[in-house]
Amino acid sequence: MDAEASPPLSISTHWRSALAAWRGAWSRAGKLALDIALPTLCVACREPVDGEGVCAGCWAKLSFIAPPFCPRLGIPFVYDPGPDMLSMEAIASPPAYTRARAAVRYDDVARTLVHALKYQDRTDLAPAMGRWMARAGRELLENADVLVPVPLHWRRAWSRRYNQSGALARIIERQTGVKVAPEALRRIRPTQQQIGLSRPQRASNVQGAFKVANSEQSQIAGRRVVLIDDVLTSGATVDACARALLRAKAASVDVLVFARVVDSHRTPI
Ligand SMILES: [Zn+2]
User: Fold this and answer.
1) Is there a cis peptide before residue 8, judged by omega within 30 degrees of 0?
2) Is 231 in contact with 106 (CB distance < 8 Å)?
3) CA of 41 to the centre of ligand 1 (A)
4) Contact 76, 110 (CB under 8 A)
5) Dist. CA 221 → ligand 1 center (Å)
6) How far apart are CA 37 and CA 203, in angstroms?
7) What's this model's pTM, rounded to 2 decimal places?
8) How many CB atoms lie within 10 A of CB 148?
9) Which residues surround ligand 1, an ion (CB under 5 A)?
10) Contact 231/261 with Cβ under 8 angstroms?
11) pLDDT tens readout for residues 162-210
């Protein structure tokens, strides 16, 4: 039997319990002090911030995309050309998907957020980013049946531990009630990083790289899909994904991303 389990009541026991209580209070106070001393820092500028990961100053610097924009590609127009006017890009090379929308332009602050989510495990950023996406994609999400995140190849998923597009899709699911099919699309061959590749190289790099898994066909066939990704650059990746989903008989494929490159010649990743 443990001698300490039923000790005779003594001065030392009283002291010991008093000490334990004092220690508990001290550690609680210590935690509180730490919370006060170490506030969350803005992910973009490292200034203290409460809550969402971006301070008011950086939030103001994000370029949220608002109408007028191309109804097909979501590229912002400098002036309003009138209803249903498509961008030159949409007319010259129409994508496999129906519509694309993005929350923000891919600029410095957006790039910092995307990189923090993708490479620094800052999953705490996903809720704010996902909410902005849900707002930007309201039109697409109203009639959607299923959300499909752009998958990582398993080798990259392994080294990165989680898929940032999947994390964003989960937030949008919570916001809208549209379910995520996280395993619907598979990367069936590894692809080179798209960074530094020309537009035609990007397209051939991802061509045939995606497939709807046989076991997941029923989640896709006849359904209106919204494909979720973090960044849209040339659109080659989402286009290849959309083709795979349409081959699996998706009724339609729309694309919703956090950020899109608006001038791809001037804003390299
Ligand atoms: Zn900031």
Assistant:
1) no
2) yes
3) 8
4) no
5) 43
6) 49
7) 0.80
8) 30
9) 42, 44-45, 55, 58
10) yes
11) 789 999 999 999 999 999 999 999 988 877 777 788 888 888 888 888 9
Query: Over the stretch 79-131, which tens digit does the pLDDT of each residue have?
Result: 888 888 999 989 999 999 999 999 999 999 999 999 988 888 788 889 989 99
Task: Please give the distance, rounded to the nearest whole angstrom, from the Cα atom of residue 176 to the centre of ligand 1.
Answer: 28
Phi, psi of 186 (to 5 degrees): -120, 145
The answer to whether the CB of 145 falls within 8 A of the CB of 223 is yes
Q: Own/partner pairs for 23-29, CB < 8 Å, 24+ apart?
A: none
d(CA 221, CA 250): 5
pLDDT digits (tens, 9 = 90+) for 252-269: 999 999 999 987 443 333
Torsion of CA 153, 154, 160, 162, to 10 degrees: 100
Q: Which amino acid is at 43?
A: V
